[in-house]
Amino acid sequence: MQKTDKDSAPLRDGAVDLETGIVGVAASPELRTRTLFQDRFVGVMRAGHPLSQGKVTLARYASARHILVSRRNLEKGPVDDALASHGRARHVATIAGGFSTALALARGHA
């Protein structure tokens, strides 16, 4: 089941026994958390995309059209914060609700 917010009420109320996801720095003190794994950001592009040739510089990366993955339909995310810290912004062409949809869009099959 997709969870669209960070509300932990279903766990506290006993409606669910276990939740997996990204835990913020301010998890509720009555909840126990355990790191299952650490993830990393990766960039994916269609075959033949201009960024697939040569070095991916900050300027080239920022100037490309991006698909933002946001389960909460937010228009900005951690990548945008990192770019802003370098005085850059990216062009988000569309927002996808999950990575499968984003990959299909990048391939041109959605």
UniProtKB/TrEMBL annotation:
Keywords: DNA-binding, Transcription, Transcription regulation. PANTHER family: HTH-TYPE TRANSCRIPTIONAL REGULATOR LEUO-RELATED, TRANSCRIPTIONAL REGULATORY PROTEIN. The keyword Glycoprotein does not apply. Residues 11-107 form the LysR substrate-binding domain. Transmembrane segments: none annotated. One of its GO terms (biological process) is regulation of DNA-templated transcription. GO terms for molecular function: DNA binding. Pfam families: LysR_substrate (PF03466). The keyword Transcription regulation applies. Gene3D superfamilies: Periplasmic binding protein-like II. InterPro entries: LysR-type_TF (IPR050389), LysR_subst-bd (IPR005119). It comes from the Eukaryota. This is LysR substrate-binding domain-containing protein.
